[in-house]
């Protein structure tokens, strides 16, 4: 199953900046575990997580059911692409 295509199918209608979304599969120790990281703009991260995490939980549930049919455990992580870089101003 192409999990990345499935994730994109679910999240594209929710987000505002579809072009700024990156979905990566992260390495796992177990071959039965599949972990995907969704990186997007901060406002889209909020949309994907939803109020009290309801949207994220729904996405995880749907993909978990799909994974179970393939004998896999699917995990999803969300990351905003607004990571700040710390600089030393005391030079």
Entry summary:
36% of the residues lie in helices and 23% in strands. The chain has 91 residues and is an alpha+beta fold.
Cα-to-Cα separation, first versus last residue: 52 Å
Give the spatial strand order of the biggest sheet. 1-2-3
SSE string: HEEHHE
- How would you sum up the global shape? globular
The major pleated sheet works out as:
3 strands, mixed
Structural class: alpha+beta
Instruction: Determine Rg (CA atoms, Å).
Output: 15 Å
Q: What is the average of the pLDDT values?
A: 90
The tally of helices reads: 3
Instruction: Report the strand count.
Output: 3
In terms of DSSP E residues, the strand content is 15-25%
Query: Which runs of at least 5 residues are low in confidence (pLDDT < 50)?
Result: 84-91
Share of helical residues: 25-40%
Can you give keywords for this protein?
alpha+beta, three-stranded mixed beta sheet, disordered C terminus
Give a written overview of the molecule.
The protein is of the alpha+beta class and 91 residues long. The protein has 3 helices and 3 strands; from the N terminus they run αββααβ. It has a 3-stranded mixed sheet with strand order 1-2-3. Strand 1 (22-26) and strand 2 (33-40) form a beta hairpin. The relative contact order is 0.22. Residues 84-91 have low confidence and may be disordered.
């Amino acid at each position: 199953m192409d999990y990345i295509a499935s994730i994109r199918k679910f999240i594209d209608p929710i987000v505002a900046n579809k072009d700024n979304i990156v979905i990566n599969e992260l390495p796992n120790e177990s071959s039965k575990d599949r972990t995907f990281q969704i990186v997007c703009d901060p406002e889209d991260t909020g949309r994907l997580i939803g109020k009290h995490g309801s949207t994220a939980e729904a996405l995880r549930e749907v993909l978990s059911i799909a994974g179970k049919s393939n004998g896999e455990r699917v995990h999803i992580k969300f990351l905003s692409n607004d990571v700040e870089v710390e600089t030393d101003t005391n030079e």
